[in-house]
Amino acid sequence: MTEQELGITTSKEHETGEWYAELVQKAGLADYAPMGGFIVTRPRGYAIWERLQNHLDSWFKDTGVQNAYFPMFIPESYLEKEKDIVEGFDPEVAWVTHGGYEELEERLAVRPTSESIITPFIAQWVRSHRDLPMRVNQWCSVVRWEATETKPFFRTKEFLWQEGHTAHHDAEDAREEMRTRLQQYERLYEDVLAMPALTGRKPEHDKFPGADTTTTVETLMPDGKSVQAATSHYLGTSFAEAYDVTYVDEDEEEQLAHTTSWGLSWRALGALFMTHSDDQGLVLPPTLAPTQVVIVPIWDEDSKEEVLEYAADVAVNLEDAGVRVELDDRDNRNPGFKYNEHELNGVPLRIEIGSYEVDDEELTLVHRPDGEEATVDREEAVETVEDHLDTIYAKLYAEAEQTLEGEIREAESREEILGTIGQHGGYVKCGWCGDEACEEPIKEAIAAEIVMVPREEDEEPIHDECAICGEDAEETAYFAKTY
Ligand SMILES: [Zn+2]
């Protein structure tokens, strides 16, 4: 490949959609599968997903969650037991009707989500109050047959995610569970993905089917659209009723359990790639980068041996300290080509070592996000590199935070909502009466919707009147365009 073919040719700022599609393929994250709506996740993309998984999975396990695995098929009769789930997902369910040449007696749904197969088993496993709370999680893929354009990691018919399902003895405990998971998702964005996030509730008309309360993490993309980045639901007793999750309490009375579910998908990866990357390619926070540091030795015939030896020595030191480091000593590529390639692939920190560095016992460090350079002592390589990786994380976070802060605006009328989102994108918050009908004119005009309302139900709305109808405002609505 020539350097031209290697690099990205579109502009993030001016053609975000094309740029994203090019980024995903050229940075080796994913390819488009032969069937519309499906992607092939390539090793680099999958390695990032695995790192993300490890963070979240360890937090889940630290807080009482166990992993399990359930079948990908759900009998139709199981799906039908909870009517909201059926109505909510029916248009998007893929069905298996045949096994080999035989028509099945009962159709099987390819799971669009697994409440209807997991909850019946929680019902079997829970007997008494001593079995509660019960928490299971599975890492799997689900299928939702949406007829929209494929956008890797954002919109695909099959996607990877985790779904947690829990049962509790009362509403208070279940609500606490919902909040705990939401906080863990928020922490993942803030501490691992270098992305500030907003958290809130979904409005009544946009809750998860059958849920009492749906909470959400929302993140803002550079093109001004909001991404629903994770959700956590308190399901009340509707699923417990449908699937008979009961327990015997301390007074030997039978009680209905309260359940929750919560999920985060690989859309988190899409949001991550979209947020930090640039026209040179992928930008990753060191927390998730499969390779955190690449060492590029620069030599001529005379210096080759000592430069390579010095570089290899630095690589060993860093590796021993737990840094994910790669020594790029390929003979058949010049340093410029290597720089471009590692920039495209999102390696956060580059170390350049030539004969100057060897003579002065130094290293030259270059930050991926902004090209900042520093010359540092060889002696303190490990500590210095770790500091620089932290600095790179902080830079990415600060930039995303600055973007978000400038993109939350207020409006007091329908025209102002339309004008502000139309011109700038981002979030517009306003007073809202709580009626879905007031979302309609905004949706129709500019395809923006209420992505969330503040989480605390007793919080006063920012304005007294609904910006759309002028009636008394019940809460504050955040309008935005969405993915
Ligand atoms: Zn209204």
Commentary on this structure:
This protein is α+β, with helices and mostly antiparallel strands. The chain has 3 domains: 3-276, Bira Bifunctional Protein, Domain 2 (BirA Bifunctional Protein, domain 2, 2-Layer Sandwich), CATH 3.30.930.10; 293-398, Rossmann fold; 408-481, 2-Layer Sandwich (Translation Initiation Factor IF3), CATH 3.30.110.30. Helix content is 35%, strand content 26%. The protein contains 15 helices and 23 strands. The strands form 6 sheets. The chain has a 7-stranded mixed sheet with strand order 3-7-8-14-11-10-9. It has a 5-stranded mixed sheet with strand order 16-15-17-18-19, sandwiched between helices. Helix 3 packs across helix 7 (171-191) and helix 14 runs parallel beside helix 15 (440-446). The protein is globular and about 85 Å long. The structure holds zinc ion (ZN). The site of zinc ion (ZN) has 7 residues, from loops. Catalyzes the attachment of proline to tRNA(Pro) in a two-step reaction: proline is first activated by ATP to form Pro-AMP and then transferred to the acceptor end of tRNA(Pro).
